[in-house]
Amino acid sequence: MVKARLKSATSATARAALAAVVTAVLAGAGVATAAGGSQPPAGHHRAGSEPRNLDQLKAQVNAYYNGYQDPSGHHHIGPDSRWAADVTARIAQAKSRTG
């Protein structure tokens, strides 16, 4: 009985997590979900009600991290990426607040 409860709880947890991920992805694409609608990101243009192309989203993520893959297959974030600049700025803000 405990095993059945654990299995159903895990399944419910997994379903809830999957639903949250799908909602976030759809919200990022400007698609309304049962929990409510969302607006597309600033600067985003799309024709009609067609969702954004997944390849375009992947390209945006890759451009933000300016990542590369080494010969052993490990992915790395580029040192001159927008992400690195954002992290550096946040660290500087935190250091200035703690004085």
Automatic annotation (TrEMBL):
Top-level taxonomic group: Bacteria
UniProt keyword terms in alphabetical order: Signal
Stretches for region Disordered: 33-53
Position of the signal peptide: 1-34
Protein name: Uncharacterized protein
Organism: Streptantibioticus cattleyicolor (strain ATCC 35852 / DSM 46488 / JCM 4925 / NBRC 14057 / NRRL 8057) (Streptomyces cattleya)
